[in-house]
Amino acid sequence: MNEESHYRALQKQDKANRQLIKKLQLERDALKKQLRISDVSQKRELLLAYEQSKCPKTWWMSKSQAECEVDDFLANNCG
């Protein structure tokens, strides 16, 4: 392999590495966005459903308390 072809091979590998890095950065940013509590906080019903799933037999007794707790959590953490 002569010097010029070796140089081209290195350039090609460098370009592939840069594309991979960019792709991984985009995926990381997308995952960060999915995991932000402010994105999830808009789903009050989802949070209440989770609370209900923790205690389905006594949900009717704790529903208003859970609603208050979820609302307080959202107000304090997701302003």
Plain-language structure description:
Helices cover 85% and strands 0% of the residues. With 79 residues, it is mainly alpha-helical. It has 2 domains: 1-35; 42-79, no CATH class. Helix 3 packs across helix 4 (59-77). The chain is rod-shaped, with a radius of gyration of 25 Å. The mean pLDDT is 82.
Envelope shape? rod-shaped
Q: Could you name the ranges where pLDDT drops below 50 across 5 or more consecutive residues?
A: none
> What's the rounded overall pLDDT mean?
82
* H/E element order: HHHH
Q: Give the number of helices.
A: 4
Q: Which structural class fits the helix and strand makeup?
A: mainly alpha
* Helical percentage: over 70%
Number of strands: 0
User: How much of the polypeptide forms β-strand, as a percent range?
Assistant: under 5%
Rg on CA atoms, Å = 25 Å
Number of domains: 2
Distance between the amino and carboxyl termini: 62 Å
- Main sheet, how many strands, which sense, barrel? none
